[in-house]
# Entry
Amino acid sequence: MSESPLIKVACPSCGAPLLFGPNDGDTTTCQFCGAVVERPASPGRKPEPHPPGQAPETPAAPPAVPDPVSRPNCLAGLLLSTVVAGGLIVGVVAVFFALVPSSTLGGIIPISPLAMTGPVALLPVGQTQSPDFISLTYDSGADKYLIARLNPASHRIAWRGKTFEDISDVTAVAAAAAGDKFFTVESSSLFAYNAADGAPLWQAALSDKLGYCAECLSVSGNRVITLTQDYVLSAFDADAGESVWQRRMDGYTKGFTIADGAVWVIDKVGGQNSLLLLSLKDGKVQRQITAMCQGEQDYSKSPLQSGSTFLLDPSPAVDTSNRSVYLLYGWSPGCVEHWTAPFTAMDWQTSQKDGYSPSQDFSTLSTSGTLFFSAGNNLWAADKETGKVQVVSENGDYNLVPQALEQGVLIVRAKRNRGTEQFGLWGVDPASGKTLWQYVIDKGAPIEPPDDIAGLVDNDQSAFAWRIIGGQVVLMVFRASPNQLIFQTVNPKDGTVTAGKIIKLNISGDFYAPPTVVAWQDPVVWVLVESKLLGIDAAAMSVKFSYP
# Structure
């Protein structure tokens, strides 16, 4: 008798493919779910007949299927194979699916892959744990969008939650610091969900759709703060969903910052804009900083504007009773001024004839003793102790954005605004303003603002991000055709460039949507690109995680 041919069957538990070879036994164990599966009858082979006059044997009970309740949900690799004549496997594609209980079938069924579309929120975890993410995802099998909790390190889908018809149905996602809840804005409503299983907790109505600032949905302590397009600032109880307080702003506001138990925001009071510290608890004004930029002549004044810049020192992430705040504002004249808690009097003010008008390219960098800021084509430095302000660099052809002060060298990002747009990194002497070195990023545009990339990553445009790691500038450049991530290091002292690694990106096509930074967890940056979440380790110059 000839040997049995190669037999391919589906696991009755999870649907994964199983192969029985000629020399395999009568049973095998599914490597994905652990079910024990019997060999089926070979093709074309009839079962042995029972002797005449003798009843056939009672068939053995089917192999036991592991209990879906006792077995944890898992994310496994399903091998999809194309089989041709002779039993040769010519194609194997690795995809991911979640195993979830099915009350209807009484077992485990495979679920189609999920593509992350965003918005995305990172759930807070310990330093040694790989984080989970709450994301709006797309299920191609069901042609639906849904909220899901995923872990890129283990390729695990913890749960699949509420579904939506369109990608625009969810405009923002934010997680509580404790990691037990997350919040979404859907149309003009605020929703709260249990982070453990995605179950809805409460729903509250907003006065309008969410605003366009990055912080327009924020969570701090027991408060969820929203800023809507009708310029209404609202606070909700994170546990109960009750509206605790609202403030109808006078008009446009640039956004807000949460620090030291207060919402910091510029609003008009008594006909004049002021920086307000609103209590997170009840929305009452705790402090009011009313600023007026006084020029050299008494008649020359500029008030604070709704789009003016304020900078907290130290970082808002640090709670302190010794808070400093710097205000940069004014059209003509323009002022830089410094206030310290309890903000009853100004420490110093320095005015310039040419003001620091609010603009998209206005950027700041706070170091231990100096506040660097760019306005238009000029790069400035303000001494934090004395308030003395001086021009570091005047360059009519470039906008210079301060990025970092490393080994005594100011790293700036340069954008050429005369002729063809071009970006690069420069090293500048902060004392003299002398340019020490320049490195042009060929056809590159930054991932992060200001001037973040518009359009696609293709033959004509790459996208880059950077980080200071071990005293070196680590540059990460996304390129297309071929689709790859290129690492380089730049020495901040002299601009020497060292080639690093080149990593192929598993992205199809000759172009792709620009990467979006989800979060920095130094040295890992989490980037969403073409529905893939990449955890890029800048120190190791590697893609540490990839999902799916």
Notes: The longest strand covers residues 88-102.
